[in-house]
Amino acid sequence: MMSDAYVRTETQGALSIIEFYYPPVNSLPGFILKKLENAIIKEGENPDTHLILLRSGGKRAFCAGASFDELSEIGNLEDGKKFFSGFANVINAMRKSSKIIVGRVHGKTVGGGVGLVCAMDYCFAVEKAAIRLSELAVGIGPFVVGPAVERKIGLAKMTQITLTPATWQSSDWAKDSGMFTEVFPTVSEMDQHIIEFTNTLLSYNPRALHDLKRTLWEGYDHWDALLIQRAEISGKLVLSEFTRSAIAKFKAK
What we know:
Radius of gyration: 17 Å
Strand order of the largest sheet: 1-2-4-6-8-10
Number of strands: 10
Order of helices and strands: EEEHEEHHEEHEEHHHEHHHH
Strand content: 15-25%
Helix content: 40-55%
CATH class: Alpha Beta
Structural class: alpha/beta
């Protein structure tokens, strides 16, 4: 499985497409999170890149969130904080990138993946792309991704999906909430519109896009420290007997 996993960047003119894949359902182990963070930072600093498209591979889920295999192996607070800091680092890389990040969501999204979606600047999805924040069901909570989710959809909506961790919210719900910007019946229709949209964006002044990205994220510099503090909360909870038992039951299914 690890040999099939990747984070790769494809360049199409001034568009950089960053794609991650971890079979079978695009969970996010630590090494994928690190590669994803590095790719986002690199393209953000690349003067030839004016726009980033973030997507995942495969035909199943867009992202299944944290890797339960890695969660079950965490044995101390330091390792727990380090693992959850991986999500914090990716979200902060997206926030601090000088490039607008467009997202392509082709399937369901769970937990930490919802945080990635909410850190995108503009997100396309298909009708089957339901979402849920599942963390509370395994004794943790969406502490690291919470700030990104709240910024995107507001406290009331975030509270709703946080306290209903077993409930899938539809793509229409996500669109109405502001998480998805546009929703399409099929992947092919979505991809065609992404081509048109990104081509249009790339026709604009790249300096204006750069300055716009900065203004869209004004007031969130404190996330550098905040998300790491939240990672420590999750790192402690993952060591609890409740969470260990819940993760073991999930893996046994």
